[in-house]
Amino acid sequence: MATIVLCAVNKTAQSTPRRCLLAYSKGLARAGESSTVPSLSLTLLPGTRWFSRGARVRFMSHGTASSTAAGGTRRGALALSGAVAVSAAAAVAGVLINANHFQRAEMATKVSSVAVDEQEGDILERCRDFMSAPVTDIAVLQERKGEMSTRMEMLIMETQADFCKALQEVDGGKFKVDRWQRKEGGGGISCVMQDGKVFEKAGVNVSVVFGYLTEEAAKQMRSRGKVLKGKDGKLPFCAMGVSSVIHPKNPHIPTVHFNYRYFEIEEEDGSKQWWFGGGTDLTPIYINEEDAFHFHNTLKEACDKHSSQYYPDFKKWCDRYFYIRHRGETRGIGGIFFDDLDTPSQEAAFSFVKSCARTVVPCYLPIVYKHLKDSFTEEEKDWQQVRRGRYVEFNLVYDRGVKFGLATPGSRIESILMSLPLTARWEYMHEPAKGTREAEMLEVLQNPKEWV
């Protein structure tokens, strides 16, 4: 049985003529790659070329049109299998029928993400596409391939690589890859790009640490306040995660943050507790309803694959968590946030986290491309600086991740404070004039909205 992969490629990207600009995940066609399956090229939309590779048919769509297409096909990745001719015809028909869906969302023709099954290829092969070798030795990862700690480390490494490569492509700059070790156990990989063409500061960090945790530090990890009893006040632990904060130069491109993490702790009686946490949230400087819908709807679709309650519950949690109490406003327009996730099973929780991690490119990069060439005034830049000041206030006063990092022995301060922007501003008694776009933004922050 032959199969096809359909991806949109920007014709102007001459440096990557066979690379799918819509996706940055592993398993996509690469420049100069040979294959025993012939490519099928089709011109369907202006500036877009569709081609076939591989053993399945997939086309990706993300945008602001209706969530259904002709025939009741759900928006998202459409996978078809069968003979090459039949598969190609079906996929082409679906694209043509739904052409307006793509055209209504210009951002959608630029970037998306294709989920590649984690079992595809061995550990060593998957590591070749990372920004750096994993924190844990590859031989150890291969030996423990089935353990959750290994599977999670591979996921966060892949998430870091996918996001960094997507950002590098739009910016034209390169991330500085900084490996660091923690003498108490483990280490991390910090990828930071500063003073780029598009991004003033972009950081995507991975950490995998282990050792002994004080009970005080453990309290910072649990939002429900569950008591964790260690031996002589210490708990053996393993913690890993990927975190990112992106501060663009253009005030019309929002700041984005995401973090996905996994913890294991061994208590005094030898029993182990594990849980996942994380989320993705957007902090625009000016409200754009289409952007807000795209961002939240992409997250909602990922959540809905696992539970219809996840998005509404975790959206509310996000609004509550990213709240600057002393200002009476949220940090941004939210997204999703969850912590202490240990149900319904470890496998189900990991599958959900994997779906969330694979939304970070398709929920954000289309918005970046959409506003890439937007002009802005000095006044708009000043408002961005004021809003960045609020971002700093939240991170230093309330963020539990920062508090956990500072409370953990051997933590790397540079990586913890990577989330802070290069520049910010604090004006005394600053208040935007009524009827302005700045006042509109503040109103949304003081009264969170439902975007989907």
UniProtKB/TrEMBL annotation:
Catalytic activity: coproporphyrinogen III + O2 + 2 H(+) = protoporphyrinogen IX + 2 CO2 + 2 H2O
Claim: NAD is one of the keywords in the record: no
SUPFAM superfamilies to which the protein is assigned, alphabetical: Coproporphyrinogen III oxidase
Enzyme Commission numbers on file: 1.3.3.3
Bilayer-crossing regions: 77-97
Keywords per UniProt: Heme biosynthesis, Membrane, Oxidoreductase, Porphyrin biosynthesis, Transmembrane, Transmembrane helix
Keyword Transmembrane helix: yes
GO cellular component: cytoplasm
Sample GO molecular function, one term: coproporphyrinogen oxidase activity
GO biological process: protoporphyrinogen IX biosynthetic process
Pathway(s) served: Porphyrin-containing compound metabolism; protoporphyrin-IX biosynthesis; protoporphyrinogen-IX from coproporphyrinogen-III (O2 route): step 1/1
Self-association and partners: Homodimer.
Family label: Belongs to the aerobic coproporphyrinogen-III oxidase family.
PANTHER family: COPROPORPHYRINOGEN III OXIDASE, MITOCHONDRIAL (PTHR10755), OXYGEN-DEPENDENT COPROPORPHYRINOGEN-III OXIDASE, MITOCHONDRIAL (PTHR10755:SF0)
NCBIfam families on file: PRK05330.1
Name by which UniProt lists this protein: Oxygen-dependent coproporphyrinogen-III oxidase, mitochondrial
Organism: Xyrichtys novacula
